[in-house]
């Protein structure tokens, strides 16, 4: 009988009864997944039945009066009811209902593939022959058939982790003689991912990892491997140094870099993994300086590890700096020769870990082979006093040039621009919503505002940026001083952690002030605004990243003033002598000039260090064609407390109106008529000067773009 190719989608009960005179053999091939019960009966003694289910069958097979039932695959034959039958053997099935009696002296031949029983969270597998149909001893263990008589699932309750130990299992509740001792051991691994693990530890030439568990047996041999998820590097072995039932600590066999790693814990039976972020915390340089009387001796402060600072080295622009002193927080090294004038990058290597900070130190004077080793060779001997008088019109009439060529200004005039401008009595506009430096003089306004705080990587790419949009303020005023304190609201920020704090302080006084900033004293002009920005508790992505505070203001594309009938072009942005860092911001509006001064150093964890000021971008203003929006960035070291301190001063351009430019022009014309050729030369010279000034103005935008490009290359 072959029903394999037939389709009976609703068939539940199938019966067959061989008729009298049959050959004594009944073959049934059936493929009916929905079959619930199959009955086979025969009144003929000696008939053999061969039943073969082609698909798994969960129903019952009922036999009556037959003497044999055969099925080659017991997984297809799970249930058998044998009542009033003459069969002599019963196949391996999970449920038996029979009235057969056990022959006297019968012994079941039970065999096990292994007496070792590893458990994963209390569950294991027993394999063998004649192992039964399962049994449950309440509160102790449960045996459940997977394949009856061949494979049983074991669940042992309340088994504590520890070394391998004997555990007796009874296979059947009615036959206690079939009880066997197994060697049981818990081999499960469950990593506790609900608890924040201890961060990985940076060690000398290696790293340490802590892993916590809810299930772990330290009596089982485990191996731990570490794999970098970004670089897909080969497995790094992590040697287990200590462990217990809920944690382990291991150390890698070689150093690793900052990154996200997959930590895999495994034994021969089981494995689990978790992700961890490793961050190099050292070497980290936060402040760099040198003694002006001894520029060969370099001082570096930061974190250089608590592991003995092995194999330490320092380089400045790829030149070795010989270490004379080193500990966890400072390094002192000495160059063999005087460093050249200009910027120097610093590279530090300790315990096989590396740190680099580009443009970390500015040498203002240089030794042999420097950038400007001799500026006066081949030139005529200069006269500082004469040059000062010619170039500044003798301090623009508001002071006197001294023999060193320096303007000594009259009281109330600004020495920074050779006495051109006069300090202006004004009151700043204090904005309670944000720390904006703002003046309004006779309807002419000036603003300088904080845009954001950025974290940059070694390539100066932005790692993350915190907008400075919501501030809380407290403003206090006395007769001489107004102080506004601001705190950036970062409560709901997903960019920085809860420990990050950004504060700003704006102070204003109508009097001149001297304030301490690091080891220096800074003179603040009268009516100037001092802006201090403090950043603390920043969670850096790596020891190579650092901060940049971004400001924004509006500047003029072309600006000039007239003095003694001459036009003087004024650059809105003035850089240092090496064209590396922005020093002054000057904006002329009407008769008012607003000066911003940027100090080329900041405080990193209380120590002064070089701080470069960048022109990040210069874009046309949307308000008019005569102005541009300048975005300025102040670079800070990686520090737990960073402080910068620019100041801004309103000034009045005091024009000299005692001379008549018309008379001067007429005189030139008269001389031109009388002298002839000589006058032509003079007139050409005057015209050339005017053309040159116009060209200077036209070249302003190109020059700004060039400076911006050069700044970005530094």
From TrEMBL:
Keywords for this protein: Membrane, Transmembrane, Transmembrane helix
PROSITE patterns per the UniProt record, alphabetical: EGF_2 (PS01186)
Organism name: Cavenderia fasciculata
Transmembrane segments: 667-689
Domain EGF-like: residue ranges: 407-419
Superkingdom of origin: Eukaryota
Protein name: EGF-like domain-containing protein
Stored InterPro entries: ComC_SSD, EGF, EGF-like_comC, Ig_E-set, IPT_dom
């Amino acid at each position: 009988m072959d029903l394999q190719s037939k389709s009976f989608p609703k068939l539940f009960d199938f019966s067959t009864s061989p008729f009298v005179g049959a050959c004594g053999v009944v073959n049934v091939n059936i493929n009916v997944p929905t079959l619930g019960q199959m009955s086979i009966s025969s009144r003929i003694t000696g008939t053999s039945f061969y039943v073969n289910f082609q698909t798994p069958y969960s129903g019952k097979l009922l036999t009556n009066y037959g003497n044999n039932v055969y099925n080659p695959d017991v997984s297809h034959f799970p249930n058998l009811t044998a009542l009033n039958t003459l069969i002599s053997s019963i196949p391996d099935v999970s449920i038996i209902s029979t009235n057969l009696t056990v022959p006297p002296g019968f012994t079941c031949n039970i065999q096990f593939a292994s007496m070792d029983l590893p458990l994963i969270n209390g569950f294991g597998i027993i394999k063998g022959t004649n192992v039964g149909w399962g049994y449950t001893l309440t509160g102790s263990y449960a045996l459940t058939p997977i394949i009856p008589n061949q494979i049983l699932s074991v669940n042992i309750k309340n088994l504590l982790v520890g070394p391998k130990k004997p555990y007796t299992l009874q296979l059947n509740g009615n036959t206690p003689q079939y009880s066997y001792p197994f060697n049981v051991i818990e081999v499960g691994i469950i990593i506790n991912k609900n608890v924040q693990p201890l961060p990985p530890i940076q060690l000398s030439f290696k790293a340490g990892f802590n892993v916590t568990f809810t299930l772990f047996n330290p009596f089982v041999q485990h191996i731990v491997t570490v794999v970098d998820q970004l670089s897909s590097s080969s497995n790094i072995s992590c040697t287990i140094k200590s462990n217990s039932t809920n944690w382990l600590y291991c150390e890698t066999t070689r150093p690793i870099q900052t990154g996200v790693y997959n930590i895999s814990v495994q034994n021969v039976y089981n494995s689990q993994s978790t992700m961890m972020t490793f961050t190099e915390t050292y070497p980290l340089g936060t402040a760099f300086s040198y003694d002006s009387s001894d520029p060969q001796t370099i001082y570096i402060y930061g974190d250089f590890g608590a592991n003995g600072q092995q194999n330490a080295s320092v380089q400045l622009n790829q030149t070795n700096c010989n270490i004379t002193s080193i500990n966890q927080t400072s390094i002192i090294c000495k160059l063999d020769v005087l460093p050249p004038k200009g910027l120097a990058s610093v590279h530090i290597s300790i315990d096989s870990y590396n740190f680099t900070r580009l443009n970390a130190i500015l040498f203002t004077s240089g030794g042999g082979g420097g950038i400007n080793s001799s500026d006066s060779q081949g030139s005529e001997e200069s006269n500082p006093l004469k040059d000062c008088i010619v170039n500044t019109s003798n301090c623009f009439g508001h002071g006197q040039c001294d023999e060193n060529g320096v303007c000594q200004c009259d009281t109330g005039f600004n020495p920074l621009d050779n006495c051109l401008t006069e300090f202006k009595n004004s009151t700043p506009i204090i904005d309670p919503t944000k720390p904006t430096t703002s003046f309004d003089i006779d309807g002419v306004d000036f603003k300088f505002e904080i845009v954001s705080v950025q974290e940059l990587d070694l390539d100066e790419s932005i790692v993350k940026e915190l907008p400075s949009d919501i501030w809380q303020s407290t403003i206090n005023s006395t007769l001489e001083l107004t102080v506004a304190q601001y705190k950036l609201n970062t409560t709901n920020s997903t960019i920085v952690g809860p420990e990050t704090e950004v504060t700003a302080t704006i102070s204003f006084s109508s009097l001149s002030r001297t304030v301490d900033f690091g080891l220096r004293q800074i003179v603040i002009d009268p009516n100037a605004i001092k802006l201090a920005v403090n950043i603390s508790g920043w969670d850096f992505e790596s020891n190579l990243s650092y901060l940049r505070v971004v400001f924004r203001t509006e500047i003029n594309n072309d600006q000039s003033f007239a003095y003694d009938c001459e036009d003087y072009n004024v650059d809105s942005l003035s850089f240092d002598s090496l064209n590396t860092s922005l020093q002054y911001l000057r904006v002329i509006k009407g008769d008012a000039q607003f000066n911003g001064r940027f100090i080329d150093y900041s405080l990193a964890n209380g120590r002064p260090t070089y701080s470069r000021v960048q022109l990040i971008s210069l874009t046309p203003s949307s308000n008019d064609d005569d102005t541009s929006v300048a975005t300025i960035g102040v670079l800070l070291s990686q520090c737990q407390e960073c402080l910068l301190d620019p100041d801004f001063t309103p000034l009045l351009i005091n024009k000299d109106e005692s001379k008549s430019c018309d008379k001067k022009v007429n005189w030139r014309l008269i001389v031109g008529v009388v002298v002839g050729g000589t006058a032509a030369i003079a007139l050409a010279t005057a015209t050339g000067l005017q053309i040159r000034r116009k060209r200077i103005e036209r070249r302003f935008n190109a020059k700004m773009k060039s400076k911006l490009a050069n700044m970005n290359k530094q």
